[in-house]
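Blinded run. Sample ID left blank on purpose so nobody reads anything into the name before looking at the predicted structure. Input follows.
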Amino acid sequence: MEKMEKIKIKVVIDTNVFISALINPNGIPGKILDLIFEEKIVNYTSPSILKEIGFKCLSPKLRKYLGNENRILKILTAFSSVSVIINPNTNFNVCRDEDDNKFINVAYESKAIIITGDKDLISLRDENKYLKINNIHLKVPTPKEFIEEFEKFIS
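Blinded prediction complete.
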């Protein structure tokens, strides 16, 4: 009998979750990034998300927290290597902040959870923390909500 492979949770983390994880690796976003690097969850992303993350991480404002450019580029390369990079075919326009639509597009195509602290994305979810698009329900937890549920899931 074949051994069943564990199903891994698919996620899309927004830029602020990634940056928060780098600034405070011991915080909740840091735990999420650890889960991605340990390949306990699968992160889905896109070239436009990676570009935004890179742009923000390399900004002078954040470099004082994140270190020199070489260190940041190594982290971004490592993050890319453990992520599934897709080019979504969908192009939803449901967010007040148009830049946030890219997270929805990736999550929709990959059937992933969007982990975010972004107020615009959170405002789109229903009372059960789901965003419904074209009969697809995308879970949209905050980092804290995700970790709480993940810990229940694995225990």
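Unblinding after everyone has recorded impressions. The chain has a mean pLDDT of 91.
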